[in-house]
Amino acid sequence: MIELTNAAYWTLITLSILAGYAINEIIRSIRKGEFFDWDDDAK
After folding, report:
1. Most exposed residue of 32, 33, 34, 42, measured as fewest CB within 10 angstroms of its CB?
2. What keywords are annotated for this sequence in UniProt (predicted)?
3. Residues 6 or more apart whose Cβ sits within 8 Å of residue 29
4. 24-41, pLDDT tens digit by residue?
5. pLDDT at 1
6. Shortest CA distance to 29 belongs to which of 20, 38, 42?
7. If you average pLDDT over residues 9-23, what whole number do you get?
8. How far apart are the first and last CA of the chain?
9. Residue 18 predicted with pLDDT over 90
């Protein structure tokens, strides 16, 4: 087992939360059908 320092442990938790939140937002926008509409803002 790899030993983690406290800093590495908290960094890992933070990254996991951020990744989970980002994935959740992406899934939500795909369900709404907005995920593929990003290019419309540039026009």
Report:
1. 42
2. Membrane, Transmembrane, Transmembrane helix
3. 35
4. 998 988 888 766 666 655
5. 64
6. 38
7. 96
8. 52
9. yes
Angle, alpha carbons 34-18-30 (nearest 5°): 15
**Residue for token digits 């951020």?**
18
Alpha-carbon dihedral sign for residues 10, 14, 17, 23: negative
* Averaged pLDDT of the chain: 83
Asked if 4 contacts 12 with a C-beta cutoff of 8 angstroms, the reply is yes
Residues, the chain? 43
- Residue that is written with structure tokens 């406290």 in the block: 6
Tokens of 36: 């593929």
